[in-house]
Amino acid sequence: VLPLYMLTAIESFRAAFYWTNICYHEWGLVVMAILVFPVQKRSYHDISRVVALSDAAVVVVIVCILIILGTEGQNTPDGFTHHSSPPPGAFLSRYNNVSAFLFAYQGQSVFLEMMSEMRDQRNWPKALWLGQSLMIPTYTLTASIGYYLLGDTVPGFLPAALPNNGAKTFINLLLAFHVIVAYLIHNHPLNVGIEMIIFPGAPATQTQHLVISISVLASAYLVANLIPFFSELVGILGAAFGSPIMLFYPPVFYIVGMRSRDVPMSLISKATCGFSLCVLFPFTFVCGLIAAFNALAERWADHSPFDCDLGT
């Protein structure tokens, strides 16, 4: 997921400074330079205050985007339509939207790491319920209003729909800050995991951590330039990682947990787990990857990796 955060930060800076001609991969180097020092932080406690500011920033971003899109009617694309059912077209070309939903709700990939660093882990359920109760309505409201205002012309990267002015710069700078912090959140457990594999038995030194964090950062930069398309990368990540995280691991863990405690599963539990494991997971995983790479191939036909101008 780190390449997506880098890609989003790049897109945010490109949109914020829309009057410049800086290449996509050059903005990537800027993002890398910004992240070099923050990625040296080695616990969630070190970035907790920044995370709080990031949460506030994304709320401001969402509110501002929706207000501007609602009031700037003259800048809204003409000729868009609303569909009450899936729009016409090839199945695979439409399926990427499902993978995007899977990606949006795969936050549990870092839940265990967050819980492990809490001072009082008994408060984790409260934190989880609070976070989800805010996230789900926010996602739903943003998507609904964006679709209402722009119909089938709504871009995958919503800030791209903003008119070129000072508000666009302000909003995209806030968004860049938010996704850079999101990178830090997801980068931490990955670095820790790599360090535990390479340097077992003892914590990594600061120099070792520096080498690993920069290597991960460079890898994210490389992938973000190989797949520099927001919607397509979201589709790949949603299918490849969101699908198993949401539809495979939870029922597997539930089944293993019930068996380890020698507790019989109810018929409803068996049916739910079976449907998730045997129907939903393989369908979303296989179809999602095929659809995502099919869309990526179409984009690569027009723009090659490391192109300077990738369009909008």
Automatic annotation (TrEMBL):
Q: Name one GO molecular function term.
A: L-amino acid transmembrane transporter activity
Keywords per UniProt? Membrane, Transmembrane, Transmembrane helix
- Name the predominant localization: membrane
Per the record, membrane topology reads: Multi-pass membrane protein
What compartments host this protein? Membrane
* GO cellular component term, pick one: membrane
User: TM spans, by residue?
Assistant: 16-38, 50-70, 95-115, 127-150, 170-190, 210-230, 236-256, 277-297
Known InterPro entries for this protein?
Answer: AA_transpt_TM
Domain (Amino acid transporter transmembrane): residue spans on this chain: 20-270
Q: Which PANTHER family match?
A: AMINO ACID TRANSPORTER (PTHR22950), AMINO ACID TRANSPORTER TRANSMEMBRANE DOMAIN-CONTAINING PROTEIN (PTHR22950:SF461)
Under which name does UniProt file this protein?
Amino acid transporter transmembrane domain-containing protein
Q: Organism source for this protein?
A: Lotharella oceanica
